[in-house]
Amino acid sequence: MRKALVVYVVIIVTILLSVPAVYALEISFVVGDVIVEHNGKDNLAVVGMKLSEGDVVVTKNASIAELLYADKSTVRIFENTKIKIAAVQNNQENVSVINGVIKAKISKLQKGESKKVYTPTTVCAIRGTEFFVAVSDSSNSRVNMEEGSLALTNPYGEINVNGDEQATVEVAKKPLLDDNPKNPELWKNTADKDFVLEPQKYAESYNEYLDTLEQRSSMQSAEIEKLKQSSVKKKDSKKLEQDMNELENKMAVMADDFFLGDCANAAVDNVLQMYKEKKQEIFDSFNKVKEQADRVAQQQKANYEAIMAIREAYRKSYEEIKGKHKESIEQIKEEINKVHGQ
């Protein structure tokens, strides 16, 4: 019996190891000069390369790359674009567009599955659709729909974008539908020229935006402290289930804020890299923004990690309560069987 059990376990482990990661992203197409930044090192992108959370993909002039999801969804990355893999775990497959243009073609989502595209200024919640996203040097964002629908959300508001509609999301402003049918690359070129003409104006908008994110992060830190003081062990399973559902909602908001802040911070870095040798005025303006962007990103990361730890504590407590309940039921059954056996 014991030998059979060992064989069974070995078979199961072998099967699990042979199954590819369900929520993995990989590079499926490359033309030209495409770099993948992984753990601080630059690697030449090749077809079949698996991408991890935190990896950055950079396309140079006249270069294109395509990312493939497990469900055959794709994200095409156009030239002179920088994106980051935000999350590829816990049923999430999210990417952040730091600068440039992408086209996403997303299959219908399965139950419990989530795909999002982040920019420095908005969260694109995907519902199975085809669309372009462009991010200018100023971090203003543009969404051009081709099919399906998106929900665009940021700290200032939320809108739905459907069919062949367009929307623009400027720094420190709510998402707005846009009647101008400019293609995303043309829109970005125009926005980049405006940025060079008035960099200080955009730096001031960034400071306002980061102030908003910082205020939200401070409020979330206070919420987390309250959650830490609430004893999980004193809760019954029903109350714990309710609290876990509320916690999931709070965590989703904090996760979105974290990825927004992280993308905004990366976008500021990108501006400093691009204009250090070209435009001293732009570099000086955004060098001042960088300190605040770093501070906000660190605070948001701490909040995100803290609420993840709280969720894990809730999960363990819930499983313990359910386990004890199951054990009690089994003991009762045993006692009943003994009585009937007499």
What would you note in describing this structure?
The structure is a single chain. Helix 3 runs parallel beside helix 5 (280-341). The protein has a 17-stranded mixed sheet that branches. Helices cover 48% and strands 26% of the residues. Strand 12 and strand 13 form a beta hairpin. The protein is an alpha+beta fold and 342 residues long. The protein contains 5 helices and 17 strands. Mean pLDDT is 86; it is low at 1-23. It has helices at 2-18, 184-197, 199-229, 237-275, 280-341, and strands at 25-31, 34-38, 41-44, 50-51, 56-59, 64-68, 74-77, 81-87, 94-105, 116-118, 123-126, 130-135, 141-147, 149-154, 157-162, 166-169, 176-178. The two termini are 31 Å apart. The protein has 2 domains: 25-195, Sandwich (Jelly Rolls), CATH 2.60.120.1440; 198-341.
Topology record:
Blueprint: H1 2-18, E1 25-31, E2 34-38, E3 41-44, E4 50-51, E5 56-59, E6 64-68, E7 74-77, E8 81-87, E9 94-105, E10 116-118, E11 123-126, E12 130-135, E13 141-147, E14 149-154, E15 157-162, E16 166-169, E17 176-178, H2 184-197, H3 199-229, H4 237-275, H5 280-341
Parallel strand pairs: 9-10
Antiparallel strand pairs: 1-4, 1-6, 2-3, 2-5, 5-8, 6-7, 7-9, 8-9, 9-12, 10-11, 11-14, 12-13, 13-16, 14-15, 16-17
Helix pairs in contact: 3-5, 4-5
